[in-house]
TrEMBL record:
Residues 23-180 form the PRP1 splicing factor N-terminal domain. It is found in: Nucleus. Its main location: nucleus. Residues 42-78 are annotated as: Disordered. It comes from Cryptococcus amylolentus CBS 6273. This is PRP1 splicing factor N-terminal domain-containing protein. SUPFAM superfamilies: TPR-like.
Length: 832
């Protein structure tokens, strides 16, 4: 037991004897430790390829050596006897050969049992000949018994080389030797050679009966004349006569087979399905069939399959499919509804009756059943029966109410409806419309308590409040128009205040209930109210919500844009409310009042324009444009005294205003109060003291014929405002229009003006025309030359120069000036 687990000692001389032993036949070095499948350089030879066989043969030929043939070059590749001749023939190879020999013997035995071979073959094999030789001999015998066509005609092909051209042409075509083709070719050849055939007796008899003429004669054997073209024409005529007769019968009502007027239209109206469409329908039908078979509880599949058959014009198949779908999916309302659509009204009623048994809560089914009823009473009965099953359907209540002709009955139904469905805004609003104003107010209050988040109820309350005093306004007697208008205006303002307060409370209440509508939504509601005839409610909505979601510094611009957009959309009350809000916030801006006045002038009344302007110049007393607009509106309306009163008030606020003085003078002159106009202008020259005031004074004096007064005013004005060219022009024109004309004084006035105002084109032109009028064309021409030098790029001067030359008769000079001007301005435009 002491030696257990120890290794027995082996002497050293015996330990390494295995190194001198031969390796086993199946030994592979390294196989025990997994070193198999490796290939080394010693196994495959050197890396560089040696010379090819062609190179070796060429080298041997140069040296005169004979090429040694390869003994294995002509070896049969199927012969495996010499493939392993260089290897060691071991015991396992011998065993393998014995196995394959037994296999070959077995296969030969089976082959002998399966097929019969000739006695010669068996004899050959019995004599010890191999199987391959026996098979080769059998194949040769088979070829001898059944030779191929190629082999049979081999000798004839070889003799074709001795044929000449004539023999080649004499060989017939292979296609002409078959039966029908040969007869056709023979007949064609006979026709080409001039042969003809007699016409059948039936054709000739038919032509004679139809009384047709013969225009062509065939040389037949019996001398019969035939004309096939005429026979064809006769057939067409007979067909035409038959069609005409059928047309006459159809028009008389005796025939129903042909409609000559409508049958072409009927053909055009028919939809002919192409092969592609038919194929698509078949494919879709197969897909839907697979769908409903795999999932029979899928209702859309049944509906799609029935719709496909309807599209294919197969109503019977569609009804059958949808009926099966109703059986498979009895709880689906769409299947029942589609089945009712595909059937006649009588059958649809039966189908919907069955549907109600399976889906009694389907509103869609009940409405379809009511629609199929012919009279109103039956529809009412169906809808009231539906309300017993579905009492909380708003749509059913609406349809029931719409069928009622008596408003009282409709009101009773709606009262019951809002009790059953207290959260329906539409039912509450409909009930309020059917009630009296007093009761409608209580109805809307109840609705507001039930639905505190509905803005529609608040808007309806505002519209109700707006309509309440309408009857009172109509009862006002129009004995005094002014008093009536004042009373109506006061009542309307009071009403507007109430509606404004109501909408302000509405916005606050909705905000408390977490209902936040955007300002765009509120503006849309205001536009809807204006369209429905509630302008005060629309204005109240705008006033209460226009400031939402707008920064304070952007309010004026945004509100003006809202007003402009509403005005373009013809929502004038909404735009007016926007302007009102802008004027309340930015009343110290004169241009805001001006835009509001322009809006009222375009879309309002004269009184509204005056009201806006009066409020505007009251808030901005130094805004001259508002005073002037108010005075102009009064003057245009024919109220001259009112315009003068406004200007008088404007003088108190703007003592030195040139525009107000001139407007007052214009109104006085237009009213033929020239003395007052002169006094106003004289006062203006003392207070305003502007060149326009002096000019207007001179013009008025000239119009009144006070030439000396006008020249005096002009002399004083020129001393103060010498650079104002119109003063010089008026002065020169006064001298020129005098009787007789004072050419020298006029020339002096224009010359003084040109010295003070060398850039004034009208002064140069007036001076040249004065010289031309006095007959001094040369002086006019020279004056225009000076003008063009002082103002070289002014086209008016060039045109005036050309006109002077044309009026003087110098056409060539005019053309020269015109060419120079064109060249100068072309250079100017090209450089600029």
């Amino acid at each position: 037991m002491s030696n257990l687990g120890t290794v027995k000692h082996i002497p050293k001389e015996v330990r390494y004897n295995f190194l001198n032993m031969a390796a086993p036949a199946s030994y592979v070095a390294g196989l025990g430790r997994g070193a198999s499948g490796f290939t080394t350089r010693s196994d495959i030879g050197p890396a560089r390829a040696g010379p090819s066989a062609e190179v070796i043969s060429e080298a041997q030929a140069r040296r005169g050596e004979e090429e040694i043939p390869d003994p294995d070059a002509m070896q049969d590749p199927d012969d495996e006897r010499n493939l392993f001749a260089g290897t060691v023939y071991e015991a396992d190879d011998e065993e393998a050969d014995r196995v394959w020999d037994s296999v070959d013997a077995r296969m030969d035995a089976r082959r002998k049992a399966r097929r019969r071979v000739s006695a010669a073959a068996w004899k050959i094999q019995a004599n010890g000949v191999c199987r391959e030789a026996a098979e080769a001999e059998m194949a040769a015998q088979e070829r001898a018994r059944n030779p191929k066509l190629q082999t049979q005609f081999a000798d004839l092909k070889r003799t074709l080389s001795s044929l000449n051209d004539t023999d080649w042409d004499a060989i017939p075509e292979a296609g002409n030797l078959t039966g029908k083709r040969r007869k056709h070719n023979l007949r064609l050849e006979e026709n080409q050679n001039g042969k003809s055939y007699n016409v059948s007796d039936t054709v000739i008899t038919d032509a004679i009966n139809k009384k047709q003429t013969v225009g062509e004669v065939d040389d037949a054997a019996d001398g019969t004349e035939t004309d096939l073209v005429s026979i064809g024409n006769a057939r067409d005529r007979v067909l035409s006569l038959q069609l005409d007769q059928a047309t006459k019968d159809a028009s008389n009502g005796s025939s129903t087979s042909i409609d000559p007027r409508g049958y072409m239209t009927a053909l055009n109206s028919q939809v002919v399905q192409t092969d592609a469409q038919i194929g698509d329908i078949k494919q879709a039908r197969q897909l839907l069939q697979n769908l409903i078979q795999s999932n029979p509880k899928h209702a859309p599949g049944w509906i799609a399959a029935a719709s496909l058959e309807v599209h294919a014009k197969k109503m019977v198949a569609a009804r059958k499919i949808i009926a099966e779908g109703c059986e498979k999916c009895p709880k689906n309302e769409d299947v029942w509804f589609h089945a009712a659509e595909l059937n006649t009204p009588e059958n649809a009623k039966v189908i919907l009756g069955r549907a109600i048994q399976h889906v009694p809560l389907s509103v869609k089914i009940w409405l379809k059943a009511a629609e199929l009823e012919a009279d109103v009473s039956s529809r009412k009965r169906v809808l009231r029966k539906a309300l017993e099953f579905v009492p909380n359907s708003v749509r059913l209540w609406k349809e029931t109410v719409n069928l009622e002709d008596d408003p009282e009955d409709a009101r009773i139904l709606l009262t019951r409806a809002v009790e059953v469905i207290p959260t329906s805004v539409e039912l509450w609003l409909t009930l309020a419309r059917l009630e009296t104003p007093a009761n409608a107010k209580s109805v809307l209050n109840s609705a507001r308590k039930k639905i505190p988040t509905s803005h529609e109820i608040w808007i309806a309350a505002g519209r109700l409040a707006e309509q309440s005093p309408a009857a009172v306004a109509k009862e006002v007697k129009m004995e005094d128009d002014e008093a009536a208008r004042a009373a109506e205006t006061q009542a309307r303002q009071k009403l507007a205040t109430q509606v404004d307060a109501l909408m302000k409370n509405a916005v606050n209440s909705l905000r408390k209930n977490q209902v936040l509508l955007s300002r765009e939504q509120w503006l849309q509601e205001a536009e809807t109210c204006e369209q429905d005839g509630s302008p005060l409610t629309a204005q109240a909505i705008v006033k209460a919500t226009i400031a939402q979601d707008v920064e304070e510094e952007d309010r004026m611009d945004v509100w003006l844009e809202d007003a402009e957009r509403a005005s373009k959309g013809c929502f004038y009350e909404v735009a007016r409310a926007c302007y009102v809000k802008v004027l309340e916030e930015y009343g110290d801006e004169p241009f805001v009042w001006r835009r509001a006045a322009e809006f009222e002038k375009a879309h309002g009344s004269p009184d509204s324009v005056q009201d806006i302007l009066a409020r505007g110049y009251t808030a901005n007393p130094h805004a001259e444009v508002l005073w002037l607009m108010a005075a102009k509106e009064k003057w245009l309306s024919g109220d001259v005294q009112g315009a003068q009163a406004i200007l008088a008030s404007a003088f108190e606020q703007n003592e030195d205003s040139e525009s107000i003085f001139l407007a007052a003078a214009k109104i006085a002159a237009e009213s033929s109060e020239f003395a007052a106009a002169e006094q106003i202008l004289e006062k203006a020259r003392g207070q305003a003291d502007t060149e326009r005031v002096w000019m207007k004074g001179a013009v008025l004096a000239r119009q009144l014929g006070k030439t000396e007064e006008a020249l005096r005013i002009l002399e004083e004005a020129i001393q103060k405002f010498g650079k104002f060219d119109k003063l010089h022009m008026i002065r020169g024109q006064i001298y020129e229009s005098a009787t007789p004309p004072n050419i020298f004084a006029a020339r002096k006035a224009f010359e003084d003006g040109r010295k003070s105002c060398p850039k004034s084109i009208p002064l140069w032109v007036l001076g040249a025309r004065l010289e031309e009028k006095s007959g001094a064309t040369i002086r006019a021409r020279g004056l225009m030359e000076k003008a063009r030098l002082a103002n070289p790029k002014n086209d008016e001067l060039w045109l005036e120069s050309v006109g002077i030359e044309e009026r003087a008769g110098g056409q060539a000079q005019a053309k020269n000036l015109l060419a120079r001007g064109k060249f100068l301005f072309s250079l100017h435009f090209s450089s600029g």
